[in-house]
DNA sequence: ACCTCCCTCAACCATTCGGTTGACGATGAC
DNA sequence: GTCATCGTCAACCGAATGGTTGAGGGAGGT
């Protein structure tokens, strides 16, 4: 599985999104993170492993009780992907709008529409 | 499942991300969309249903061969969530940096660190 | 009317996911 | 050294996912 898929997959689960949200307020140990949930510590540990493999989270060290840390930079991978295609779509809409405006203006068919299949 | 979870889940699959990418270039029928993949048409139809339930895609009509259309606005839901927490994290780093800078400057302990648990 | 093509529905299958419980390993307090 | 506490590993389970095949339904061409 590629990094982008792992990122989207990691944030699919509401519990994991909540963990990310809480980590924006500061590092925390696994126990602290697990406390609020009606769920076993092992389950939270698994969630953290998923976040870690997605690159969203890192451990300060291998030691006991070492805090979990949020790696916010990888968000850019997702926003990059999203923005790219959102921008494309908007650009297309803009072109479509101007085309429709032109068609309303005069009924000249000189300019060919977007593509042959449009 | 909430909308945000459906969105992230929908974009987890590379095939679905590719479908979205292709739809930024214009509407297309199911057949056209399915053609490039080494996969049955039914599978692509399922993928489109997932994208549709996530709100990323809509059908022009119930009719035969009606084109599939990309709904780019819902991207904002995701970017909204992501940006919110990325911003929080960056803000925290900024505060941490200024704190560390202050500690390097003079060794005064007058200002208490971020939080009691930090 | 008929036939064909496009698409979806339904059933099935293997794999993954999100949770549990139980056992274990390492740390740190005493 | 001993013991409790914290965290992970492993096995298991039910539900969801991503794919298949087969059948069916509806629009259009002739």
TrEMBL record, chains A, B:
InterPro entries in the cross-refs: ArsR-like_HTH, HTH_ArsR_DNA-bd_dom, WH-like_DNA-bd_sf, WH_DNA-bd_sf
Entries under Pfam families matching the protein: HTH_20 (PF12840)
Sequence ranges assigned to domain HTH arsR-type in this UniProt record: 1-89
GO molecular function: DNA-binding transcription factor activity
Name of the protein this chain belongs to: ArsR family transcriptional regulator
Organism: Parafrankia colletiae
